[in-house]
Give the backbone structure.
Amino acid sequence: MFEAENWNYVLRGINLCIGIQLLILSFLKLFQQSKRDKILGLFTLLLAIAYMRVLLIEFVSGIPLARVLLLNSLEIFFPPLLYLYIISSNNSDFKLRKHMLFPFFYVLMNIVLKIFLADFYADNRAFLVVLNANIIVLNFIVYFWLGIQAFRKNLDISLKDKARLKFRFFYYIINIYEILNGAVNSISVTTKYASPEANEILTPVLLGPGMRLTLTLIGVIQALFLIFHILTESQFFKDYYLGKNIEKNKSLILEGESLKQKIEKIITEHQLFKDPELNLKNISKKIEVNPTIVMEYFSQELKMSFNDYINRFRVNEFKKLMMLKENEKYDIMGIAELAGFKSRATFYRNFRRIEGVSPKEYKERIQSEEA
């Protein structure tokens, strides 16, 4: 079994390795052109410093201002930077200054209290330490909620599926870890000053090697995911993994519902699916919409190809036609042709995919039910 001192060395080593990697990646992002990359770079830089904080504090122990900035000021910037990074994926006109006002005010107040009003801070240390710990957690929770709302109201609609999942995982993993870590710290300092008896019970749990190792492992996962996210944000990986554009076509977002109604109406009212030569270009021309938008509608909104969509209508039509007495003179393929199928192989493949049985098995089942 490791002693506490040994665990400290292990945890320091892990944090140092993570911090160095994040530091390198942060500079790569900070020197990019876009504001979005710079925000991600700044967040990564602050997180890298946070991981190396225990080591850095030894070098600046004699500089009060540096100690205040390292010990009390980093995490307050995390939530707004994460939020701004997420919303910048489809909105470059965000107000950076508005979201940075409170963090800068928080840092300024800590500097004033700890350096210029040191006696006041010492007299009210218990209250101020508890207040600071809870402000950090509350700040994360508020911005996490704002980010969730941004996904629901805008990002889930405007981002393509892979991009949406990627950004959601990134945003949730970082925030959940930071909220968990902040909550442990908040409970620890609150019970320390408010209820010493409870603190004696909770300290071995919250600050013991087991909890510290658990939080460190979760922190490693968080850091690895951040590293992966930054690497896949490079143009090469982005083109390969997400495509050149992470957003849906604006026209598709605005016209998605009306486009659905137009397509369904013209296909069902005029039974266009019965035309074996029907294709996406024909439909686009009839509803007077750009074929590219129609194609994106099927792939992004319906998650199927145009042919799969049309073949569903044809399969349903086949089932209806098969029930009519006037069609008893036709064999299975004859009825399939009336429904719009041109190829036997295409008909049988699509029928089995949609119904789970072959056309012959389906017909025999219907006949046995009628008997």
